[in-house]
Design brief:
Blueprint (H helix, E strand, L loop, with lengths): L5 E4 L3 H12 L4 E4 L9 H7 L7 E3 L3 H6 L6 E4 L5 H10 L8 E4 L5 H12 L4 E8 L1 H7 L2 E6 L4 H11 L14 E2 L2 H30 L4 H11 L7 H11 L21 H11 L5 H13 L2 H10 L14 H30 L5 H7 L11 H7 L13 H24 L4 H13 L6 H12 L3 E2 L8 E2 L18
């Protein structure tokens, strides 16, 4: 029997669509799915339906699966992150040979990917952690793919990964090498963190239009549709207009029947944890994660709404033009991406990945969930010789933020006075104001730390790195606290 070009493990929604995508590009694909205790074999179900008549090879044991592949073997796993990935790797190892490649296409923690990369490297097997974004539609028609891991594997997996990825209008594939070890899954994690921020910001704009301006779903859908034709052009803005128009079976708007309790799979939380590890103020995305936490407190919120009924709102209804909301949303989105790319930049330096930020912005322009028109500007900003220390220092970002700033402040302050929570819009504005504050209140914090704990401080009239201690009360001494990094 002719050997398959690629093996795919996992036939849930992403795996099934990715299998069809790979086969549709001329590859023969061997399929394996972890056996279930009950129900039909998923490989058989797939081949009897969407995979019928196509170049797929059904396998039911690991040995048959690996044996059906040409060398060097290329195996892509589309399975749940965590223990299932560990178990599958251990099952595969006895049947693999040096030079074979395992690709984890799931949403794995980059720290796990880093560890697995090193573990398999010791056995001569190349491991690739590839972030895949685009949902089921992207998986079928072309996702954005962010591979990293063993550099030796890139030329082996590059042809088929770039074939199945989304492509820009000029033919550029939305797939490029991110770096060694866990770089690929780190980039995907930050992508998902930005996605959390984007979704929360859009939800805040929706609530302002709905609760303050008292707009109905059809009008709001028209507004989001209009926004999607301008600077805010993006996948998430586009689907929002469709969601707001969508009718339930009884003719009512479906959005009104959906419980306001948001789920999550952990990648937003991981982004916040990673930011803490590299001292990165990822405040907007952190607020988006916390907002999902609070949304889960449905019963608690219902009790609080009775104990603390809405105050009399400031201003009249309809006195917040949708253009002001658009500008606030756009400015806050720019801050979100600035924070995300700053995290990528600093983590890349810390972990030695050498991530090409222009390439990241380029492969996010199509196929992925956070694809947006202004990613072209981000790619351009990082493509020159002088890379911006922060995207907010880039001329294009500066011009657009300055233009939106009055409306942004108006929306945040009016929302606060009206009792409409906008944690991400507010957080973005606070980050912006703190970033441009030439002298901050941190001087007082350092004085307090030295006062009660002899933690020392630096002086403005002395070289940076020289530390001083003051006996503030006249009863202390010259002994200072030791320095350490958390």
């Amino acid at each position: 029997m002719e050997k398959s070009n690629i093996g795919l493990i996992g036939l849930a929604v992403m795996g099934e669509n990715l299998a069809l995508n790979i086969e549709g590009h001329g590859y023969q694909v061997s399929l394996y799915n972890r056996p279930h205790r009950s129900g039909p074999e998923m490989v058989d179900v797939f081949l009897e339906n969407r995979g019928n008549g196509k170049k797929f090879v059904a396998t039911y044991t690991i040995s048959d699966f690996v044996g059906s592949l040409e060398r060097p073997r290329k195996i892509m796993m589309m399975i749940k992150a965590g223990e299932p990935v560990e178990e599958m790797i251990e099952q595969l190892i006895p049947y693999l040979e040096p030079g074979d490649v395992i690709i984890d296409g799931g949403n794995s923690d980059f720290r796990d990917t880093e560890r697995r990369y090193r573990y398999l490297l010791s056995k001569g097997i190349w491991f690739v952690g590839a972030g895949v974004s685009g949902g089921e539609t992207g998986a079928l028609h072309g996702p954005s793919i962010m591979p990293g891991g063993a550099p030796e594997a890139w030329e082996i997996v590059r042809p088929f990964l770039q074939d199945i990825a989304a492509h820009l209008d000029d033919g550029t594939p939305c797939c490029s090498w991110m770096g060694s070890g866990g770089a690929g899954h780190f980039v995907k994690m930050v992508h998902n963190g930005i996605e959390y921020g984007d979704m929360q910001l859009i939800a805040e704009a929706y609530m302002i239009l709905k609760s303050h301006a008292k707009m109905n779903n059809e009008i709001m859908a028209d507004i989001f549709e209009q926004w999607n034709r301008g600077e805010l052009n993006s996948y998430l803005i586009g689907i929002t207009s469709h969601i707001l128009r969508f009718k339930d079976s009884d003719g009512s708007f479906l959005i009104e029947h959906i419980r306001d309790s948001a789920g999550q799979k952990g990648t937003g939380k991981w982004s916040v944890e990673a930011a803490l590890d590299v001292d990165e103020p990822l405040s907007l995305i952190s607020e988006a994660v916390f907002a999902r936490f609070i949304s889960r407190w449905k019963e608690v919120r219902e009790k609080a709404s009775v104990l603390y009924p809405p105050e009399k709102k400031e201003g009249k209804e309809h006195d917040l033009p949708s253009e002001s909301v658009r500008q606030a949303l756009f400015a806050a989105k720019l801050v979100s991406y600035a924070q995300g790319f700053s995290l990528l930049k600093n983590a890349s330096e810390l972990y030695g990945w050498n991530i090409d930020l222009s390439s990241v912005a380029t492969i996010w322009r199509k196929g992925c969930i956070i694809r947006a028109g202004f990613l072209k500007e981000i790619a351009h900003a990082y493509s020159g010789m002088e890379k911006p220390e922060n995207l907010l220092f880039n001329d294009w970002f500066r011009d657009h933020v300055n233009n939106a700033l009055p409306a942004w402040r108006k929306i945040v302050s009016r929302s606060a006075m009206s009792g409409i929570p906008v944690p991400c819009m507010s957080s973005a504005l606070v980050y912006f104001d703190m970033l441009r504050q030439k002298r901050s209140g941190a001087a007082l914090i350092q004085a307090q730390r030295d006062y009660f704990g002899a933690h020392t401080y630096e002086r403005t009239d002395a070289p940076q790195g020289e530390f001083f201690h003051t006996d503030w009360t006249g009863t202390g001494g010259n002994t200072v606290s030791g320095s350490y990094t958390v």
